[in-house]
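Fill-in record for CLD34 protein.
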Amino acid sequence: ASTSHLQLAAFALGTVGWILCTISMGIVEWRVWHVDNTTIISSGIAWVGIWKVCFISYLHISPGYKEQFCHKFSGYDSSIPHEIYAAQGLLLIAMFMGLLGLTATIFALRNVYMGITRKTLITHFFLVGGFFYIFASLCVLIPVSWNFYSVMHNKSIAFPPSYYMPSSPAAQEAGAAIPIGIVAVILLLLSGTFSLSYRFPVTVNTITK
């Protein structure tokens, strides 16, 4: 057990990274749009996520009150940019891969701390867990980088009229989901590196089944 401190850290970091990946996928603040026309988007700010677009509107209710209007992306709409649909698929894969990595790490750590000295079994599960973590981190890195690039270049989106969104913002900035995703990438990469670095201790009475 004294040789697996980094792998225990890998499990802790991988757990936090997986949670952050899930959070980034769930929140709508991927791209923050600032718009000039506040007739419908009352606050002048809209949030473009990977599942829906939302904004605050005072239009349909009594003065002094507000509500959040959201429109979910349904099916495949050619007007929605590829980076949004790519983020949907890749983050779902990242969640699944991260969960498999955690499962493999748990199994390997269980054997280590219970004194089950099966070298091949333990080493292989740490290796598998490490590869799953790294693959998950890449699946998060691609959509985060792609959407950040779109934000930095102020890319427009030709939303259908039913979305009540302009095709181009006056300005846009990265939302909270992007830095959360970046932290998730770093933690998952560290987890994968730590898991892959495991070396089974050489002892005289080791059973190497």
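KEY FINDING: The helical segments are 5-26, 82-113, 119-152, 177-196.
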